[in-house]
Structures are given as structure tokens and as C-alpha cells.
Protein 1
Amino acid sequence: MSRYSKAALQQAYQHCWFVVARSQDISKPKSAVLLGKDLVVFRDKDGNARVTDRYCVHRGGDLAIGEVCDSGVRCPYHGWTFDGGTGKCTGIPALPDPAKFPPNAPAIRAYPVIERFAHVWTCLEEPMFDLPNPPEIQNLDLDWRAAEPIPVPIGFMAATENFNDMAHFAFVHAGSMGKVSPIVDAMQINRRGRELSTTIHYPSIPGSEFSSMGDAWMHYHAYAPGIATILYDYGEGGHRYLVDFPSPVGPESAIIYWGSATASDFKHGSADEILALETKVFDEDTPIVSRIVPKEVPLDGKVREFSCSADILTLNYRRAVMDVVDKIQERFGYVHSEAAE
């Protein structure tokens, strides 16, 4: 298995935080798939978001159609209950005496959880990095909206690259953005490890709803492998924020979780109006990116691509992803042969 093969990448990404649900969708158990792992996401009776294995260890009942109970989640098949924080079995209705529980107390696996940006995040193995709190929004009072998730038949890196790509605006987003110049001006990329940022000036386009708020500075800030953000600064018109964090279902499939927020100083519409506007943009992307080949960024170098200076941000994103993978492989002792594939 080579260093950046699909299998090696999937192994490394188990140590990264990814979204598995919107916070607003987990009042009842909800299924999710992350890196091929079947999960169930729910909010327990105390209001805590929980993520566990999806299937009961008894006879494989589907906890995603179970119900939340005092201890966590109850299997719909035989009623076994499991603590959402530890995965420990807390009840077997057929055996009300805990002393008669089967030996080696049955349990499902529970995973760490963080709620941030109006979404639920988890990590399948020991996290390599903390989930970031972007410094540029720490002093902003943000009104968040979590968008409808978008399933796509491409890898999550390809979806993240699309968010960070500016050269497609004139061709994919003519409907929402108007007559954007196809020229991508030179930009200064700041990259340190897995983190990268840049700023571009986005001039208002006459007749475009997207830029009806006026000129803006777009501050891009990304954290490899799969978190990308844009802070829109309209000067006296205030700020709004856009986040994108595609989650890997498998090597070549993802769910694009994303959201937007308006700051209290924003003077050009409500949070709902901005979400509707950005939804138009994402809806323009989906049919295009869903048909790209290869389906995922070819970090293993098996597919030859041709890049230009306009790709500087996405090329730096790839380097940041490789830096993440290298650090994970070194820390957790994953050894791969470059000549294996």
C-alpha cells in the first residue's frame, strides 16, 4: 500500500474530524456513513449529541430506527439499551437482573463528538488535530444556518477543491454571480502545515444578485483535509461567513455539509436570505462537480493533470492534505511502500 493510495488515505482520515449530521436533525436517531463506517447520530435526554455504531451487538438491530432513552439509545428489535457516551449496554429487557448479563458486558462503540458551526462532528480514531475555532470570527456575533446536505459521487477532497477554486466562477456561476471576469488575479497564499489562507477582492457585478451587496473582500481560510471557509467583508456593510466541510462516505463519495452565517453588523439581508442565495451557488456546482473524472484528487499521482497559476490555492490545499497524511502516518506508525502500487 503506497503512501497516498486510496486505502492509505482512508486509514489516515480516521484520525480527522468530519461532520456526520446537522445539529438540527438529531432529535431522533439518524444514520450516517463515515469512511465506510455505519454510524447512528442522536441527541440524548440531557441534550448531548452522541455518535455510536449503528447496529446492535445482540442481533444486529438498526439503532437508526431505534429511540432515544434515558441512558442513550434503545434497539428497536429486542430493546437492548446502550449509553451514548460510552457505548456500554445498560439494559436487556429479557434479563432484568444485570447479574445475568452475558459475560464480557456487550457494548457498541461510541465516538467523540463536537458540535460546532451548527453541525455534529466525530472522529473514528484518536484525533490528530483539534477541530479549529477560526480566529477571524471570534469577535463576530454570528447567526448560523445549516444548509441542506448534498450527496455527491466524488471524493471529499474534490468537493473541497471546488469550494476553493475561483477559476470556475465565470463558467459555472454565471446565473448567480453574473458576468464575472474569467481572469484569476495573482494572489498571495499563506500556508503553514495543514492551514492555508488568502484574500481576494470581489468587485460588485451589475445586475448580479450575488454581489448586490457591493464590493467585498473574500478572506479564504482552510484547514486540511476538509474544512474551508470564507469571511466576506463589506466594509461598513458588515460581514457574513460561509463554511464548507464535505464528509467522506467512501473513497469516491461524499456528503457536502455546509452552512452560512450573518454577523450582527451585516446590513444586506437576513441569515435566511443569505442561505437561499448561497444555495443557488451550490446548486450550480453540483451537476458539474458530480461528473468530474477522476472522482477524487489523485494524490497518488496515477492520473496526470495540468495546472496553471490560477490553481495556486488548490495546489497548496493538496500539499496541506499531504502534510496531514504524513503527520498521521508518522505519529500512528502506518508504514507504506512507495513501490507497493
Protein 2
Amino acid sequence: MKIRRTLATAVAVAVTTPAVMLSVTPAFADTKPVTQPAAEPNAEPATEPTTEPNARPVPQTDSRAASQTEAGQAQAEKEAQGKPTLKELEKAAADAQKAYDDAVAAERIAYKVLEEALSDTAPLTVAAKAAQKAADDAAVAKTTADKAVTDAKAALDALTEEATEEERTAAEKTLAEAETAAKAAETAKSTADADAKAAGKLAEDARVEANKTYDAVKAAVKDALDAKTAADAALARAKEEEDQGGDRTCVDEPRLTTVATGFPSSVTAGTRTTFSVRVTNGTDKELDEVLTYAGVHGDDKAGLKDIGKYLKLKWSTKASPEWKDADNDSYFDAVGALKPGAQADIKLRLDVDAKAPAGQGLTLITGGYFNEDGACGFAPDDVLYEFDIKAAAEPAAKPSPTPTATTPAAGSGVTPQGSGSSVPVATTGGTLAATGSSDATTQIALAGGAAVLLGAGAMFVVRRRKAGADA
């Protein structure tokens, strides 16, 4: 079963900018047929070329429909002929990986250069400090010379009429010498000031240039990561299609929605937090089996270490309140069949291991369906929720024990459907991942984690479908 919505497109929507994705080689391009002409006024929006059971057709003339069908078939044949082979995609993914590794290596070098340029021991910085000290010394010398002129003038003026000619000549000579020395000191100060200014500018220019170079290299790392993500996604898609075989096309179904509420903006190691997900079938047909996907990923503050092993998601429903783990592919059968316009509420719990270090986390929640007649689809609005991970606080000194009433431990037993978190946390209504640390390294790592979640989310319905077919 081929997947119409590619992982590369999913990553482009939620992780990267369209401009970057468009720069990726056409080997990673989506294989959708060209967009059909706009329908006539008051017509419903057109969907994928595959006709879904009970779907209402877009009003148009037979000749127009036939023309569009022929155009779509011709485009599909053209794309099939130009489709890259698995070997070509593997090479493209390997090349993208190498480019990314090279960019990361260049970033390390640029950062080292920047550190050296900003250090007090940088040659230009040392030279600038020496030049400034010379300027300061020249200023002191000029002040001393100016005072000598003042003192010589005062001594000459202080001579009385009884002063001998020799005394007056000596005083005048002292003044002349002091004035000559003052002029020389002034010239030396001007030269030293100019030298200090020039040396300072050289040092500052070196720091600015190092900063610009580092920023450019960081941007290159991001672009390389985007290209690598697209290449990996295209390869994964091709392998998935090769494994599945057949010609059934899964389509985007924007009227199948999954919305999370009460998702935390931050969690603390050693706590658990609950939130809700509502799945809504906004279509005009019954969906035989609706699946929900929830994946979680985490990185430490430096963005260098995957800490996802400390994060666990569990789910429950009103009909089945006992907490259950999602399976290995992070999807769960909590909904089942869903009639047109019907909704289903799922309760999720995020458990954070007490050993979890501080960092950043991402959760992707989405859904999909497949029907007994073979039709299947995805909820296209994958939403990433970003949250801060706080390390557990150091244990406080234990106070002297005092008798207290026995109360159940927080989070123990079965939490009734719809209740809040067992540990108070700040919550939000669920938004696209656009907050958190501004550290570039952490954001790059989170982007990679988002790509992993998106890739898994885009394929979970297909894997479930295949499992059902093999049973």
C-alpha cells in the first residue's frame, strides 16, 4: 500500500521552512498528481484523486471530469517514469549525511575560532591592550610636560628686579625647554591615541568577523540537517512502499482531527502529568477503525544527548480506565469505530523518570483510520507540542516526624477519566512547537527529534494496515 503523503512533506510542514525543502533535489519531491483546476462556485473542495466510498463528487461536466482524469493519469505515468530508484535514494541519503557531518565539523572549528577571538589572550586583543597602555602612558607624560611649562612660567614671573641677568636667562631657558618637551609629549600622545584606536578596531573587526562566520556555519548546519531529514524521509518512504506493495493510496483527511488540551509547558523529573486528547470524525462517513498516535522525544539542554528513555506515555479511556502503554510503534487502539460527527476522548499521562536531566521535550499527537473496504487516511494536521524538562530538586533535610493522617500517595491507583494531573504543572491549550530554549544546538537536536516523530506518525497507519492484512 503506497502512502500518498510523504514523510518529507510532513517534516517540511512541521520542522523546516518551505524554502529549504524546495531546495532539496527533486528525488525527494512528493509524488502527488498536479493540483486539479478549481471547482465551480459552491462546490465542495476537491480531495485526492482516489474516490472514497460515499464521498460526494464535485459538480462538474462529464467532459471536464474526463479531461482531469486523463491529465492525472498522464502526470502519474510521467512521475512514475522519473521516480528515483531505491539505490539512488540510498546514495542521496548517504551524501546528505556526509554533508551534515561536514557542516557539524565546520561548526566546531568556527566555534573554536570564535572563542579564541573573544579571549583575552587573542594576539590582536593583546596588541590592542598594549597600544592602549602606551596611549595612557603618553597621556600621563603630556600632563607632566604641561605642568612643567606651567611651573617654568611661574618661576620666570616670580623673578624680581633684583634678579641677575644670569638668573633671568636660566629661567627663560627652562621655560623654552619645558615648552619643547610639552609639544613633543602632545605629538606622542596623538600618535599613541591613533595607534590604540587602530589596534582596537582590528581586534573588534576580528571578533565581528568570527561571529559572522560562526553564524553562517550554524545556518549551514541547519540547512544540511533539513536536507538530511528530507533525504532520510524520502528513503524511508520508498522502503515502506517497497515493503507494502499494492496500489491502495492513503489520503489526507483534514476532517479527522486530534486536539490535545491541558498539555504542560514544563514537567519535572520524578512527576507524572495527565492531559486529554479529543478525536473527532468530522466526515460524513463512518470510520471502521480509528487509531491514535502519540510519540515523545527529548534532548538534554546542550542538545547533544537523547533523553527520550526517561519519558513514557500511557493512555486510558472512560471505558478502559486502567493505564496502558502504547505499543512499540507508539499507536493505540483507544477509539475503535467512529460514526460521522462523533467524538472520542482519550486520557494521556506523561511519566518523567526521577533520573531525567534538564532539557527540552517534544510530543507529536496525530491520528488515522482504515476501513474494511480498504480505504485509509491520515489526519494531516500533525501538531508538535514542546515542553521544558526540569531536573528533580535536591532532597531537603527531613524534619522530625510528626503524626499525620494517612492519605493515598499522589498518582497511585487508577485516576478517573477527566481528572487533572497528580502533580500541579503549568498547562497550555496545545500549540505548535515554537517556544523554549533559543540555544541553536538544542533547537537543531529537537528538529531531528521532530523528524523522527513525524516519520513514525506518518507510517503508523500503514504498519497497522499491513499487520491486519498479514493476520
